Amino acid sequence: MRAIMVMFDSLNRHMLPPYGYEDIVAPNFERLARRTVTFDNCYAGSLPCMPARREIHTGRYNFLHRSWGPLEPYDDSMPEILKQSGIYTHLTTDHWHYWEEGGCNYQTKYNTFEFVRGQEGDCWKGRLKWEVPPHIDGRKDACGRQEYINRYYMREEENQSIAVNFSNGLEFIEDNHEEDNWYLQLENFDPHEPFFTPQKYKDFYKDGYDGIMFDWPGYHEVAETPEQVKHCINEYKALVTMCDTYLGKVLDLMDRYDMWKDTMLIVNTDHGFILSEHNWWGKVMMPYFNEIAHTPLFLWDPRAGVQGERRRALVQTIDLAPTILEFFGRKIPEDVQGKPLYQTILDDTPVREYALFGQHGVHVNITDGRYVYMRCPLPDKENELYNYILEPSSYPGAIGVEEMRTARLCEGFAFTKGMPVLRIKGGYGISSLGFPPRKLMEFGTLLYDLEQDPKQEHPIRDEEVEERMKVHMVRLMKENDAPGEQYVRLGLEAYL
To answer: Terminus-to-terminus CA distance in the chain, angstroms?
Structure first.
């Protein structure tokens, strides 16, 4: 048995043909949907990038205990479990956050790994003198400058990191398609911003725009002209089309070597990205609307043989680790909260009634598939938050000397395997990074009825639904062994 995960970053469910979007060129995603099960109700859990990857390893929520960070010594890592039990695991990725502070301890869980340089602000090529071209938005720091240096060395498509990364993944398949018992994670930074593509992909979306370059939206409210907004969206579409092209190369090899008979295929993402919806760009600066949290998922399990069908069951990122472990016949650790999806693939058997999702330090969110409830911290309690960690690193610069001075050793949690942990003041980010953003907190608590308002444009008041959501939010938090201050900051002590 073999398994392949093709993972994209910031892939928008609502902009893919299998989910009803027609104004994009993505024939291989359509082809994928014909060969797999398409999940209609998949949600992220812990957000954004590295918290989501920690869920792929551990199969459990981590956003209630710590912010962005590495794998911890007590974490059960799905690739490592496979490796230790004789399943060969290989990671190829151009996701540069793995090699930043706060992103370590992931790649070493695989037997082998490859890293392709050059995405976004990856500190790759050194140029002391460099003129950054005129552009709208983009990072204004060293990361932004580095991006344009990196682009200079990726002028040809074959040199772009997505092309090299897929080449590495395809090489692994070519070299090992006759072998048994392996897992390949072919993980791609695209279509994460910036939306950098060769001209041939842009040509699908000619819009007559002749203004200043705009392919890297910042995280803020929309301030651009309608023409600029449309152009940036088209730049994203061009990058999705590029992703689709390389996805097709994996499907080609699956066909060529008849791998469908014994190879699991998962195509997924960590989260989506807001492209002017709700009058915003990006993520993390606004509530996690469905454009971000409601994610695409395609899954082929050769044992089930189900293809071209859809499933309505509520599933999450935390279900991927147990699904892969079960596929290989490996024991699922007790601390895993996700559920294997084999039976769901067969007949849409539910694995949960409610799903929790969010980011450390801001809203905690819950959905039952129809309603989404976003619980905002109380104004006087929002900063009553701690990171519980053993590896004292987070997003670069987030945990510094001042934060470490607050560290106290405390008793661990049910999932820390008897290990004590450091309790460090801080949450969503640290004040030095300007978090938590005031605009986000000003949204307050929100409740949406997706059946009546699928675009989440009109929050509702319904005391009965809100009460039900609070009860199940607390239940799921308790199952996650959430620290006590989480209930205090959300004003939910009465539900304990």
So the answer is: 45
d(CA 42, CA 44): 7
d(Cα 491, Cα 376) in Å, to the nearest integer? 9
Q: What amino acid is encoded at 156 in this protein? A: E
Q: How many CA atoms lie within 13 A of 52 on its CB side?
A: 24
3-state secondary structure of 262: coil
Task: Tell me the C-alpha to C-alpha distance, in Å, between residue 13 and each of 39, 43, 270, 383.
Answer: 10, 11, 11, 33
**Gap between the Cα atoms of 234 and 116, Å rounded:** 26
Contact 125, 150 (CB under 8 A): yes
pLDDT of 432 over the 50 cut: no
Quick check: helix, strand or coil at residue 449? Answer: strand
DSSP secondary structure code for residue 135 in this structure: B
The pLDDT of residue 47 is above 90: yes
Query: Long-range CB contacts (< 8 A, 24+ apart) of 138-146?
Result: 138/194, 138/216, 138/218, 139/216, 139/218, 144/216, 146/121, 146/122
Tens digits of residue pLDDT in 321-373: 999 999 999 999 999 999 999 999 999 999 999 999 999 989 999 999 999 99
Nearest alpha carbon to residue 181 among 33, 309, 392, 329: 329
Contact 119, 161 (CB under 8 A): yes
SS3 456: coil
Both tokens of 436, joined, read 């938590």
Q: What is the pLDDT of residue 433?
A: 46
Residue pLDDT, tens place only, 194-209: 999 999 999 999 999 9
**Band of residue 278 on the pLDDT scale cut at 50, 70, 90:** very high
Tokens linked to 407: 């560290």
Phi, psi at residue 425, to the nearest 5°?
-60, 130
Q: Alpha helix (H) ranges present in 154-225?
A: 161-176, 199-202
User: Could you say which DSSP state residue 104 is in?
Assistant: -
pLDDT tens digits, one per residue of 147-194: 999 999 999 999 999 999 999 999 999 999 999 999 999 999 999 999
**Mean pLDDT confidence for 204-217:** 97
Q: What are the helix (H) ranges across 92-225?
A: 142-152, 161-176, 199-202
Q: 478-481: long-range contacts at Cβ-Cβ below 8 A with a sequence spacing of 24 or more?
A: 479/337, 480/60, 480/61, 480/64, 480/337, 480/356, 481/413, 481/414, 481/415
What's the CA gap between 153 and 104, in Å, rounded? 26
Token reading at 256: 């060529």
CA 144 to chain centre: 22
